[in-house]
Fold this protein.
Amino acid sequence: MTKNIYNKNMIKKRYLTKFVYKDLQEKMIFIGGPRQVGKTTFAVNIVADKFKNHAYFNWDNREDRKKILKSTWPGDADLLIFDEIHKYKNWKNLIKGEYDKLKSKYKFLVTGSSRLDIYRRGGDSLQGRYHYYRLHPFSLAELLEKTNKVHIFEEIVYHEKSYTEEFETLFKFGGFPEPLLRGSPRFLRRWHNEKIERMFREDIRDVEQIRDLGNMKLLSDILPEKVGSLLSINAIREDLEISHRAVSNWLNILETFYYHFRIYPFARTKIRSIKKEPKLYLWDWSEIEDPAARFENMIAAHLLKLCHFLYDYGGYKAELCFLRNVDKREVDFLVTIDRKPWFAVEAKLSDKKVDTSIHYFRERLNIPYAYQVVKESGINQFSNEVYVLSADRFLSSLI
């Protein structure tokens, strides 16, 4: 049993709280994110605390479905919360109609475990009526209850203090609230099994028609082994003995339900970059057994959280990419704004010697800042325009 450093009161201080509340004053808010990342808790226990009265409706509940379809809303509420309503094929038309009629009386908050911003079931567009946020698992900064202000095209101001214990707990148990709170390896193993089964049984099967659900589950079983490598659909197709089209479709569906995410190479002719194969990472890095791959995935998840926040709230076109050219020079991550490089990150378990690829790409792409992030605690060096520092110091400076 690992010492539990998770504070239950942090549930009331999720990193999006004040931003969602502010945006609710002008538009609907959609909140997407992985199963069990805390969307319902966030909506009901946090955002609702800022309103006098609220009403919560879950599409999976029979009585709630009846009320939704009959448009039966309580007269004393000022906030309506709809959970998993995307499972209803005409949900967009329903929400659009109710919002257009009642937006002067109610605020609308919609949550779901699929990407509500692109989900195509349900007709009329909701364009211009909502803001969309992606709720991420706990990062190190959020675990430490830090409210960092990250400014684009400025240096990531890392903390001098070390946070070894908190980092190791997050590395081992991942950032999802329940296993992080429990701090139990046995609970984590059972939670992994139940999460995957429920994702297929209660989420994907409800909204997607999959003929070969068994092989799709096998695909999810092998994806943790693909983390950090160039993703070859042909190789997976051969392993599972199924069509290229099926693998591609299943990967898209699993990505829609926030099981994994893919990042793509940053393409520039001056570095002779590769242009096709992405790299794949999981939203829950605690599923990955290999320590190096898990560490790289943890860094990727933190950087994606930063990019999503800058996009969802700040409106910046922030993207997470990687660098690789035909000569197989590679840097793990590049964060860009409007396709312009901001900073590069190379993840290493223990190697403090600066990777030569960082210098190569930094010079050719004029990357303002470069970091080599190592798992070992207590590292803080600056070598030829590259910061070499511990992951706990670097990650504690993000969102």
User: Anything to note?
Assistant: The chain is about 35% helix and 20% strand. The chain has two domains: 17-134, 140-395. Residues 140-395 form one domain. The first helix runs from residue 17 to 24.
